[in-house]
Write a structure and sequence with these properties.
It comes from Streptomyces antibioticus. This is Calcium-binding protein. Keywords: Signal. The protein is mainly beta and about 270 residues long. It has 2 domains: about 10-165, Immunoglobulin-like (Sandwich), CATH 2.60.40; about 170-265, Immunoglobulin-like, CATH 2.60.40. Helix content is about 5%, strand content about 45%. It contains 2 helices and 19 strands. It has helices at about 10-20, 25, and strands at about 35-40, 45-50, 55-65, 75-80, 90-95, 100-105, 110-115, 135-145, 155, 160-165, 170-175, 185-195, 200-205, 210-215, 220-230, 235-240, 245-250, 260, 265. Strand 17 (about 245-250) and strand 18 (about 260) form a beta hairpin. The N and C termini lie far apart (about 60 Å).
Length: about 270
């Protein structure tokens, strides 16, 4: 599924029509004589998106052009895609607008752009779906202002990678409290993550989660045991009360979901 295309005043119609045809026809590797480098999406950090709220990230990149090509004669922007190359891509994500560039030299432009991720998009945009979580390749597009054919465009593949993940939440509750030393403590909780298809948080099933303990006065958590979430993402286990301190659950994350730890729940042992 294609996401929102770059929208521009001078050549937006060409950009949109090019994206509407099969990728093998729409993404020539030659044409407009510019090259892209130093592309950084979200400063190289993972993009984490919740169930409903739009996330906008910055992209920086460098454009190298011939000295006789005016910086104002074309527009450009980053592209996220899946597939071997842009010419073979199966899915793509574009920003809403072209990048903004400043002249560094007669041949070098320093540019910035934005890419929007919408899990619950308005009618004119495409939603993120759960299948969109994970790794994306980074490419870029340039289009001449007076473009009349694909020869007036430049698509460049394999400029890096970025990970897009579904935001996660983790809770914990240790009870009873206070408790006598040696008695049983029951520790419950839930691991959930953004469901972009349903636009809400939902339990993350069958995931390994560590139960950790930090003794009062200490700054370090140690792992007590590892358990798995239920089919609905819930957690439940028992331990023997030994000392005053904090219990928490900690999840290491997956390729589609970031690591997350619950805030510690204090237990008073007497």
């Amino acid at each position: 599924m294609r996401k929102r295309a770059i929208v521009v005043a001078a050549s937006g119609a060409l950009a949109l029509s090019a994206l509407a045809v099969p990728a093998a026809q729409a993404a020539p590797t030659a044409g407009l004589n510019v090259t892209f480098s130093n592309v950084k999406v979200n400063a190289g950090k993972t993009v984490v998106v919740g169930p409903t709220t739009k996330v906008t990230v910055n992209v920086t990149y460098t454009v190298t052009k011939p000295a006789n090509v005016s910086a104002g004669s074309f527009i450009s922007g980053p592209v996220l895609y899946r597939g071997a190359t842009l010419s073979e891509q199966s899915d793509s994500i574009f920003g809403d607008n072209e990048g903004t560039c400043t002249t560094s030299s007669s041949t070098v432009l320093k540019c910035t752009a934005k890419i929007q991720f919408r899990p619950d998009a308005p009618a004119d945009y495409d939603d993120l779906g759960n299948g969109d979580a994970g790794a994306w390749k980074v490419g870029a597009l340039a289009i001449a202002n007076d473009a009349s054919s694909a020869d007036d465009m430049k698509w460049q593949s394999n400029l890096g990678t970025v990970k897009v993940q579904r935001a996660a939440k983790l809770t914990v509750d240790a009870a009873p409290e206070p408790v006598k030393k040696g008695k049983t403590i029951t520790v419950t909780g839930k691991l959930s993550r953004a469901n972009w298809d349903a636009n809400k948080y939902a339990g993350y099933a069958a995931q390994s989660v560590k139960l950790q303990f930090k003794k009062k006065g200490s700054s370090t958590y140690t792992t007590v045991k590892t358990i798995k979430t239920s089919s609905t993402g819930t957690l439940k286990t028992t331990v023997k009360a030994s000392a005053d301190g904090y219990y928490r659950y900690s999840f290491a994350g997956t390729s589609t979901t970031p690591a997350v730890s619950a805030a510690g729940d204090f237990i008073d042992v007497n």
